[in-house]
Design goal:
about 190 residues, about 0% strand, mainly alpha, Tetracycline Repressor, domain 2
Length: about 190
């Protein structure tokens, strides 16, 4: 790795595996293949700056793959289907931890609380916008969006705890059916 950007995916996986507190500079150095000096050269703010870079990378991916497509959907049902497909691939059918959710549950989450809140609020709002475009009324759209995002997050935890990616797939497919069913029932 020769630049800051190429280190970010490896940092993300190290933080996923070890958490913010558990990811020592030794762990991060090993994960990236960079010496501690190089890490500090690329990230003079230390672990906090590394995590900020990782969260920015996650935000960028979700903006491109999830949030914008939901908000700009001309075919809301197709946008919901795409969201489910994208999160299934991104979270590797529940085998990959949601780093934003994980950080939000730990003591280190306080340092990143605003980013974490914005991430989840944006996802819920984007999905609710899509559902409204599909004919779902305001209060129901917000409720369904909140339940879907929490269902996806819960599916990640359950699949990892059970060691069963099929649980993740069943839950997210049910969420997809509920969301599309809500649009069809009102459309």
């Amino acid at each position: 790795m020769t630049d800051r950007g190429s280190a970010v995916p490896a940092l993300a996986e190290a933080f996923r595996e070890h958490g913010f507190e558990g990811a020592s500079l030794t762990v991060l150095s090993k994960a990236t293949g960079l010496g501690k000096g190089s890490l500090y050269n690329f990230f003079p703010g230390g672990k906090e700056e590394m995590m900020e870079a990782v969260l920015t990378d996650i935000d960028t991916w979700f903006e491109t793959a999830i949030f914008s497509p939901l908000e700009r959907a001309t075919d809301p049902a197709a946008a919901v289907t795409s969201m489910i497909e994208e999160v299934t691939a991104y979270f590797r059918s529940g085998r990959r931890v949601c780093l934003v959710g994980c950080i939000g549950l730990n003591a280190s989450g306080a340092a990143f609380a605003d980013r974490i809140r914005r991430y989840f609020a944006r996802w819920i709002a984007a999905l609710a916008d899509c559902l409204r475009a599909g004919g779902v009324t305001d209060p129901v759209a917000a409720q369904l969006a909140e339940e879907a995002v929490s269902g996806i997050q819960g599916a990640i935890v359950l699949a990892r705890a059970l060691g069963d990616e099929a649980a993740f797939l069943r839950i997210v497919q049910r969420q997809q059916s509920i969301l599309i069913g809500g649009m069809i029932a009102r459309g």
